[in-house]
Each structure stands twice: as structure tokens, then as C-alpha cells.
């Protein structure tokens, strides 16, 4: 059981809540915090002192006072005018994650929103009423204004919900569920659309995928080393203790375990080759650096999962501070770092593919014995090269850019929404690159029989061969590549 606004939220917990594997509840303790903060907002809203977003306009209109009678209309107008997203809709799971993250933030008791608004969002979550949210339009400061506006339009009877794979007006869905549109009151619209939940949802989904792909990259590297008949000596514990980066040590231990008791590797440990190329020998350093980036991003994401990121923050009956907790820079920079780390996993994987095609150390050129008439595995490496280059182009840090908005009032923005979307694009490309490397490695292993490999490599070899047979003569490889990508996407490989 997870308690909104009380317990610490983690990447794994928020995914389990979204999947329905972890029950999340609104306790009396959280309700009391929400109600107490709402009372403070009502006091402030009826006072003479101007407080941003409660009795003033927004952005560059913060110097315009709003009367008490117009306060409610102000909040409705806020959602309507800020829902200007464009592009394809985000995945439905992202919409659900955004709502879960927003509820947890609102339940901290600093946002001043009414309990009934939070309970309506929880109803949407628990009944899989998932709003349609366009993927483009946020600059990642003042919160993810456009996507969050689309996310919460259905609260007021506007916007759209998903019904399976079709889009249905929110008004129709509310009627089906016997729900009336909510009339927002002072500060509530601002509490809903200020925040980093769009960036945060992309970070969560990306971290989940990256954690798996980090382990899979180690498996692919180990299989390639088996196929290349490389050395396990570069993974010795003594070597990495004297340069003790956490990620490097972890990968070295994994590589040693993945190659443990390999008859194939052991039979060539004392061959005349002095050293292997970097893409084999430096797997701990390169994969390990990517792991360090993963740990950094996860740490910052989990801080953000438990933070209050709207504005202004209600501190007392008389004080609502207009600050910058909505600014996405802390996640934007680390997401860009995550993209670079992910891209490098693909970069080194492509180099291992190339090595397996060279025809050295007992492997036939292009991994086929019928070269000339047959092209063998020549061309899939073109695909990995294309994907690697695409990933490099996606690694330009969006967080390094800023375009002033709101007539200059919001003069530095994070572009973190772009960082989050790119991170997931790079991860999607990495899935395909590793799928091709694993296909190559399995073919290379065929030429090392009757040698046996480590138990885990043998098990993964079997997983591949159940879907993709050995290449004897040229055939349509697109089907093989698609089957490999499906194995990766379904996380069918044995990692430990």
C-alpha cells in the first residue's frame, strides 16, 4: 500500500501504481494537510494583498489585480488558454504517470487545491480515464504548462479521453460516469498546470527501459566476446579496484560472471593475441560510465517524484511565495546526460558488430561461409550505423538552449520536455542496435562449436535460436531483425 503525500515515491513504485500492481490511497493524514492548506488559500484570496496567481494575472500579467468575483473564472481560463499542445499524443501510460505524480505532489500540502479536485484525479487514475495529451508545446519552465493543461481539461468538462485507441470528448465520458465538471476555485488551475510532471513521466519510463538495456548491453558484449574469442582478463576485480568508479566495478563483475566457466573463452586465454580492441576490452569503462549516468538520473528523478513543483507555494495564512520550483533544469540536464550515456551503449555495440564481420580469428568474413554469392550479415551493420548516427544527432543537449517566453517574464526556460522525449527516442534506437548485435553474436557462436559457453550465454543463445535460425545462405533478414527487436522489447533475455 502506498500513501499519497506521506510515503516516499520511487521509480519502481510509481510504475507499479500505474500498472495496478501497487495500491495507492489517500489517507486521512494527507487529506488533513490538503484541507489545511486550502484554508490558507481562501484567507489569502480574500485579503487585499496581491498574491501571484491567486488574485493576480499570470506571467507578464502578474501586475493585473483580479477581483474576488472573477477569481474562479481566472482559473478556468488558465486551463483553456494554456492547452496549446501540438503533435502526436503521448503514450497513455505517460498520461497516467503524470496524474500519479501530480497527485503525490499536491498531497504534500503546499499547493492549496481542494480535496475534491484531487479525488476526481484519483477517480480518473483508478478507472483508467486517461486524457489525451499532445507531445509538443512545453518549454519546461513555469512547469509543463501545455501538456498539463491538456491533462486536466477533462476536470472542467473539456479536452478528450482515450477509449481504447480512439479519442472521445471528455464531456461524453463524464456523463457516462455520472460526473459533473468541476468548477475550479482560487489557485487551483495554477496548481494543476504548474509542475514538471511531463518531464518526470518521461524520466520514469526512460529509466525503466534504460535499467534493462544496461544489463542487456553487458549480455550482448559478453556474447560478442565469446564469438570473437576475446579475453576475460580485462574484467578482473584487481584491475578495477584501483580505479573504483561504481559503474565500472559493477560491469566488470557482471562481465566476469557472464563469461564464468566458458570453455570457449578459457581455451583461448593463452593465445598469442596480446589484447582485444577497445569495444571488447573497455566494456567496463564504457558501459560503466553509462551506469553512473543512470544512477545520477535516477537519484534526481526520485527527488523530483517527492517534490512540490507548482507555484506559488503556500507557506502560511499570509504567505504564498512565488518561486521557481516549477523550473525543469535539474531534470533537463540529467536527461540530456542520460541520452549521451544511452547513445554510447549503441556506439560501442555497433563497433562490436563491425569486429564480428571482419573475418578474424576463425570467423568467416561477414559471418557466412558462402561469401561472394552471399552477403551474409554485411548489411544489418549499415542499420546499426544509421541508428548510432541518429542517436548522436539526438544528443545535442536541449537544456543548453533557452528561448524567452511570456514577454520576457519567463526569460530562461529548461526545454526539459524535449530532453525527456529525446531520451526515450535514443533508448528506442538502442533496443534495435542491441537486437542486431545479439543476432550477430549468436551467428558467431555457431563457428565456435563444439566449444561450450557460460550457462547464461548458452541460455540466451537458445532464446535467440527459438526465434531466429542460423544463417546458412542469404535470406530476408528483415524478419530476423524484427524478431530480435521483439525479443528485446519484451525483455525475453536472461540477464543474471
TrEMBL record:
EC number: 4.3.1.3
Pathway: Amino-acid degradation; L-histidine degradation into L-glutamate; N-formimidoyl-L-glutamate from L-histidine: step 1/3
One of the protein's GO biological processes: L-histidine catabolic process
Localization in the cell: Cytoplasm
Reactions mediated catalytically: L-histidine = trans-urocanate + NH4(+)
Main subcellular location of this protein, as a coarse class: cytoplasm
GO cellular component terms given for this protein: cytoplasm
Keywords on record: Histidine metabolism, Lyase
Keyword Lyase: yes
MF terms in GO: histidine ammonia-lyase activity
Enzyme class: lyase
Record InterPro entries: Aromatic_Lyase (IPR001106), Fumarase/histidase_N (IPR024083), HutH (IPR005921), L-Aspartase-like (IPR008948), Phe/His_NH3-lyase_AS (IPR022313)
Record-stated family: Belongs to the PAL/histidase family.
PANTHER family referenced in this protein's UniProt entry, alphabetically: HISTIDINE AMMONIA-LYASE
Record-given protein name: Histidine ammonia-lyase
The organism of origin for this protein: Hyunsoonleella aquatilis
